[in-house]
Amino acid sequence: MKDAQALIEKATQLQHITDNMFDLVALADPHGNFTFMSKSHECLGYQPEELIGSPVTTLVHPDDISIVTSELNRFLQSGKNSNPVKYRCRCSDGSYLWLETMGKIIYDEDGEVKELLFSSRDITQRVQQEEAIQNQNALITALINSIPDPIFYKDLDGVYLGGNTTYATYMGMPMDEIIGKTDYDLYPKKQADIHRQYDMASLENHGIHRNEEWITYPDGRKTLVDVLKTPYKDHQGNVIGILGIARDITELKKTEEQLLDFNSLLEIKNLELEQAMQTAHTANEAKSRYLAHMNHEMRTPLNGFIGFLQLMEGTDMTEEQKEFMGHMKHSASHMLSIINNVLDYARIEAGEIRLEEQPFYPEKEIKMATAPLIALAQEKELPLHLDLPKNLPRQVRGDPQRLRQIILNIGGNAIKFTHRGKVSLSISCLKSSEDHHLLQLVVEDTGPGMTEETLSKLFQPFYQADDGSSRQSSGTGLGLPITKELVELMNGTIQVTSTPGKGTRVETVLKVGALSS
């Protein structure tokens, strides 16, 4: 009686333990039919008692039954614990979960098989993650194989871990024969030493290393290649190897050699031109006048190029072509802006810049100038507050193009250097008389601000007040010097106040002519 009670208590205790386990625990008789199933099997949508007496393969996906049966037979015959088996298990709603199961044989006192104990774990999420990684790796492999330049990657010891099909083609052997080898297995020692030297230079400098070298491939071919090498890191930021991409520039070098005579002649002509310029006037004036006179010659073809890009936008293009077109337009516009700045400054230096005197509507010109600023701010998702009071004169006399240029330069700088917060731009009329008006332009931003040292150099030509985050904000360094010159030509003033970490305020006062009503 006591033994029976003890068995009941032990069974109850076992039931309690298995009911509180995450793993799915089951017992089966020697014939492979379930005799016990833990409560955790409810995750499949079944009550444990529904499956008692069923074969252990009842819920196994048809495609996985052979795997499960084979391992079951193996471990029954060997008498040893089974290896982990991965398979799909059918839920009551018809869906499948991935399980990983291990089996153990329980023997009776006579050494005969009494029961089979199975412990299963839901590995669906792990399998999905593994499949996602496999898909990602397949995508990366397809991408690098689509690149026409040879690509390879090695570990820190210089052992090849992989590469694209182009690299295998250049090497004249399958990638499987390259993986696991070093340059010393593939190239002559002298050349392998050079490769290793460049590898170490990139690893030690933690950056891109670029070099040109002649390479003799295993089949005897010799090519001149331009090689870029850079370290690559794991998810924790540790350098674990080096990535390389090469480009065959043999034909390019041959072309360059064929142009040597032409380049020599060009150098002679350039020298003669410099000498002629030096005798014509002082070097600085000659430079300034030459650049100023290049205005039409440089702007006209570039404007034509931009115009053709705009026409091409109206044609049917793929999404990739549209993206390329956008980059080309942006680059061309940026180049035109740089040319305009350089030429404007050259004309200022040469004393050839003149202000137009013509009637114009200030409100119209201000709206034209702020339109691209609004677009730039929207691109950066940056609030731009515009304040145009009603006291602006309806019509004035002056240079509308230079007014727009001043607004664009100051407003553009504020937006360019402000990454958080906002930019405010206001224009008002400070004073009016019979012959002139004083217009006040105030631009305030919440950008990084500037130190006193930076402020003292702000209007120096070619000085670039970087915000410290990158060189993406860099330009010619001529925008503000040109703005200051234009403001002074308009008998105005410009003042800049700034606090590091808080922002900058630029206040400009411009004098324009008044028109009688």
UniProtKB/TrEMBL annotation:
PANTHER family in UniProt: TWO-COMPONENT HISTIDINE PROTEIN KINASE (PTHR43047)
Family designation: In the N-terminal section; belongs to the phytochrome family.
Catalytic activity entry: ATP + protein L-histidine = ADP + protein N-phospho-L-histidine
Histidine kinase domain: residues covered: 293-514
SMART domains reported for this sequence: HATPase_c, HisKA, PAC, PAS
Residues in PAS domain copies: 44-79, 136-206
Domain annotation PAC: ranges: 83-135, 209-261
Gene source species: Tindallia magadiensis
GO molecular function: phosphorelay sensor kinase activity
InterPro entries recorded: HATPase_C_sf, HATPase_dom, His_kinase_dom, HisK_dim/P_dom, HisK_dim/P_sf, PAC, PAS, PAS-assoc_C
Coiled coil: none
Listed EC numbers: 2.7.13.3
Name by which UniProt lists this protein: Circadian input-output histidine kinase CikA
Primary enzyme class: transferase
Keywords noted in UniProt: Kinase, Phosphoprotein, Transferase, Two-component regulatory system
Matching CDD domains: HATPase_EvgS-ArcB-TorS-like, HisKA, PAS
